[in-house]
Amino acid sequence: MLLAAIAQKAGHAVGLTILKKEPLTKAVETFGADVVAYSVIGSEIDAFKQADDALKRRMRATGKRVFRIMGGPHPTFSPGILDEMELDAICQGDGERAFPELLRRLENREDLAGIPNIALTSAGAEKRELIVDQDAYPFADRDLYYRAVPYLPHTGLRSFITGRGCPFSCSYCYNHAYNNMFKGCGPIMRRRSVEHVLAEIEEVIKRYPPVRFIRFFDDIFALRADEWLEEFSEKYAARIRIPFYCLMRPNTFNEDTARLLAKAGCYSVSMAVEAGTEAIRNDILERRLSDEEMVNAFELARKYKLRTYGNTMVAIPGTTLEDDFTSLEFTRRLGLTVPTFSVCSPSRGTKLAQIAEENEYLEPNADLITRFSALSPLNCYTRREKEIQARIACLGTMYCTVPKFMTPWMKRLIRSRLPLGIARKIGFSFTVFRIATCLFPHAIPRSPVTMFKVAVDGIRYFW
Q1: What is the C-alpha to C-alpha distance for residues 169 and 30, in angstroms, rounded to an integer?
Q2: Is residue 397 domain-shared with residue 341, that is, in the same domain?
Q3: Which residues neighbour 320 within 8 Å (Cβ) at sequence distance 6 or greater?
Q4: Residue 254 is part of which domain span?
Q5: 270-315: per-residue pLDDT in tens?
Q6: Cα separation, 139 vs 158, whole angstroms
């Protein structure tokens, strides 16, 4: 939405296509597009490949060329996708300056070489840059997305990003690779001013009512109780007064940050669990978090009456099925409002994928793209173990939130041969309901029709 706003400000016409809702070829033909820009994370790449193959067939049939560029995490860390899909270019990292400059040169038929963060070969971008001034660009273009998903404006939820960057180096996350790739290009942690953030929120409240709940999507909303958070806490509480959700890390969620978040009006907070033992959490995932820090963080959230969400992974390279059940029990002990579980699928370009490959847990060219409840791509588990891990992912939320007397029955269900299709429908319907009612209750649509559409899309996403 931000890149669309920037492109429109530069005088370009912009459209949006959602692949599940409309064939790309039809959208390109209707809109008369000269450029198609894909934004891709690894788990989505197959859908984009299929759409792009259809577009290439159309170009060959009609003789009309469309410039195709891909941005997002996948091309940033897997630049070989440029050759694999025969793309014209990829964008690695920030695109706020790169994308409009690319469009300008295309329009003027100028050479495309040398644009920072734009790669024309799979060797990667010749020059790299970080966008430091986060206040220098227009607000995200929400109209574009609301036209594509018309029911969204009728929900009470609006999402914002206040800054970029994460200083931590968790082995399963792209951030450590990103930090290494852009080392020396500027500060990794970059933040919009409080005034810029609040001005966008106020505009959205005015233009797109009703706004009953706000979700901040920063990787980490606050590292410490600094001047920014102090100012945000004061001004948000005075000017916005709408409950919000944000992402934190257990070792940054201390008494001071919890107090300021609660003062501002925070309703729910996300803090990932990831693993139930320190050895796995720290030696394999490199989280650098003790059990004590985990327990204290969630106790602190309860003290300030903040609802909590967090994900725990199973089937982590180098672990056993019993480790997964230990994680299940530890997550239940933490007492999250909404705990979720997922089958680990190491992303290409991360340390965790490298660990799996070095230990030969992965077959050569193994498909690492799985959904939350898919079978593990690792070869160190039996088929039976993989099915149990998938049922943990499906039913873990229920296990951790039902009364204690029901846990033996739930554990037997997880270890049973219950078909995964049934486990997904039961478990994820429950999870979607709990997320909506416990984490974002203010955002639940008041219209039954809108509520139904949101529920269907949410359940379809998890299934």
Answers
A1: 44
A2: yes
A3: none
A4: 150-462
A5: 999 999 999 999 999 999 999 999 999 999 999 999 999 999 999 9
A6: 13
